[in-house]
Amino acid sequence: MFDIFEMTHWSWLILGLVLLVLELVAPITFFLWLGVSALVTALVLFLLSDMSWQLQFLLFSVLSVGSIFVSRKFLLRQNQISELPNLNRRSQQYVGRVFTLTEPITNGYGKISVDDSQWRVTGPALEKGAAVRVTAANGSVFEVEAAELT
């Protein structure tokens, strides 16, 4: 039977591996640092072998909190400037482009065809076939203005 008051380096090693596997299942970079802290605790306990359970949990707690704070500070400091800032914001990729209306803009709304999909647009009243320039994207609705086809 498992006794929490008699944890060995094997117990911490198993806990660390379980936490690392949990990180693979739920990748939020939180369990990673808990798992690493448990593995370091296992290493320290292996090297020192005579450590009370209170000291083990204190070491694990300090390592966990410290590693989480250090990782957060390091990860938040990383300014990742992408060459494709709109990669996962599909509607933003179309701002500034010119398209042809597939349905006229009546009562403020119409449609354009972009590649293989239809997008709802809002703007001034224009006839079907008119050229429009996308000026903004609000969710899945484009704001458009009249434009010249080039």
Key terms:
150 residues, alpha+beta, OB fold (Dihydrolipoamide Acetyltransferase, E2P), five-stranded mixed β-barrel, 3 helices, 5 strands, rod-shaped
Structure characterization notes:
The chain is built from 3 helices and 5 strands. The protein is α+β, with helices and mostly antiparallel strands. The chain folds into 2 domains: 4-77, no CATH class; 90-146, Nucleic acid-binding proteins (OB fold (Dihydrolipoamide Acetyltransferase, E2P), Beta Barrel). The mean pLDDT is 86.
What is this entry, summarized?
This protein has helices at residues 9-25, 31-48, 53-77, and strands at residues 98-106, 109-114, 117-122, 131-138, 141-146. It is an alpha+beta fold and 150 residues long.
Structural class: alpha+beta
In percent terms, what proportion of residues is strand?
Answer: 15-25%
Low-confidence stretches: none
| Number of continuous helical runs | 3
Question: What's the assembly state of these chains?
Answer: single chain
Termini separation:
78 Å
Main sheet properties = 5 strands, mixed, barrel
- Round the Cα radius of gyration to an integer and report it: 28 Å
